[in-house]
TrEMBL record:
Keyword Hydrolase attached: yes
One MF term in the entry's GO annotations: lysozyme activity
Gene that this polypeptide is encoded by: acm
E.C. no: 3.2.1.17
Annotated TM spans: 288-309
Full protein name: Lysozyme M1
Keywords per UniProt: Glycosidase, Hydrolase, Membrane, Transmembrane, Transmembrane helix
InterPro entries noted in UniProt: GH, Glyco_hydro_25, Glyco_hydro_fam25_subgr
GO biological process assignments: carbohydrate catabolic process; cell wall macromolecule catabolic process; peptidoglycan catabolic process
Taxon lineage: Bacteria, Bacillati, Actinomycetota, Actinomycetes, Mycobacteriales
Pfam entry (one): Glyco_hydro_25
Protein's organism: Corynebacterium choanae
Length: 376
């Protein structure tokens, strides 16, 4: 998915300062001890898989070769349809039709902008779905930003959108989110457990800490850095929590009791280039967050942050990516200090959660700059 949001800065607490200082000591101790991220595969078993794509997967206008995507063993594909008010993905119709023509079950998603009308967004999304090939997966609300709404306001906005969309399409929508956002921006509300959950959790092992009162995920987005034949660059990689026949039943509108969680062991033979840092991404992020806060406080430099990220099991590429994000966000004044302090204080989130948070903040900063440029 596309991540566009981060929180504003807040004054550091005593606990945060302690975490920062602990991280500084750990950084110094581990400067010379670098480790490589474990290399992982996909889960054994007959779980259907598939990418989700947007305009970002059309690098330089390149087309997606959906026959290769299907031949690589995938069963479904989600294609971004709309965002907020007034935006329709220019590749939505072509990608949807070509994916379906090559035997993939097609889904779609709407990227929520809660500062705008929920009802009008649901109507625009439903209108776009008229061109979607059938049969298809249920429509999806991609909820990742609050745009200034409180948890209670955002909960009401979400219910309004889902109710309107179900009325217009006759189908129960899927809710896409990630754990940190749901627990904090939605106050971990349990109001939506009657909707299927699509959870983003970038890690090697199946996430067991499901937010919002859901007992299980219907879809799991395991990576946003998958290399999939037929797609230029990288794409998000997902599992359906059931069998192929259950996926067909789900498409047909049956309310499936899928059980608890995807089960299985790691097997390298089904991987389609899933990011090699997944094992490290599933580790606790508290010390790495502390190191980032230390950079923000001017206690350590960016180079030490890279070294520390490597010591946490990240390959050089992901470690540099984190450092680049932090450096860019500091320069623009958009590093989400408040969220980082919360992560450090609570200490139960993953490096994958951290990456999503930083990507959110960077996307927001980019959107703000584009808006300013348009006004000049």
């Amino acid at each position: 998915m596309e991540f566009l949001w981060g929180k504003s800065a807040a004054a550091p607490t005593r606990r945060t300062v302690a975490v920062v200082m602990t991280a500084v000591v750990t950084v110094i101790a581990l400067v010379a001890g670098l480790t490589n991220a474990s290399r992982v595969g996909a889960f054994e078993g007959d779980y259907p898989t598939g990418p989700d794509v947007a305009s970002w997967q059309h690098v330089g206008g390149a087309a997606i070769d959906w026959s290769q995507v299907k031949y690589a063993g995938n069963n479904f594909a989600f294609v971004k349809a709309t965002e907020g008010l007034g935006y329709v993905n220019p590749y939505f119709i072509a990608d949807s039709k070509q994916a379906a023509a090559n035997g993939l079950i097609v889904g779609s998603y709407h990227y929520a902008r809660p500062s705008q009308s929920a009802t009008l967004q649901a109507k625009e999304y439903a209108a776009a779905l008229v061109a979607q090939p059938q049969p298809s997966l249920p429509p999806v609300l991609d909820l990742e930003v609050d745009e200034g709404l409180s948890p209670s306001q955002l909960t009401a906005w979400t219910q309004e959108f889902l109710t309107e969309l179900q009325t217009l399409t006759g189908r129960k929508p899927i809710v896409y989110t990630y754990r940190y956002f749901w627990q904090h921006n939605m106050a971990n509300t349990t109001s939506f457990t009657n909707y299927p959950l699509w959870l983003a959790a970038y890690q090697e092992t199946v996430p067991t800490d499901i937010p919002g009162g859901w007992n299980y995920m219907t879809f799991w987005q395991q990576s946003d850095k998958a290399k999939i034949p037929g797609i230029v660059g990288v794409a998000d990689f997902n599992y359906f929590n059931g069998s192929p026949s259950q996926l067909d039943d789900f498409v047909a509108g049956l309310d499936l009791p899928l059980g608890t969680l995807i089960e299985g062991t790691i097997s390298p033979d089904r991987v389609i280039g899933t990011a090699m840092e997944l094992k490290a991404f599933g580790e606790n992020n508290r010390e790495l967050v502390g190191a980032i806060l230390a950079v923000a406080a001017g206690v350590i430099g960016i180079g030490a942050l890279v070294t520390f990220a490597r010591s946490q099991g990240l390959d050089l590429g992901p470690a540099n990516a984190i450092a680049d994000l932090v450096q860019s966000l500091l320069a623009s004044g958009n590093l989400p200090i408040g969220d980082l302090q919360t992560m450090a204080a609570e200490g139960d989130f993953t490096i994958g959660d951290l990456m999503i948070l930083l990507q959110n903040a960077q996307k927001l900063a980019t959107e703000v700059e584009r808006a300013k440029a348009a006004l000049d």
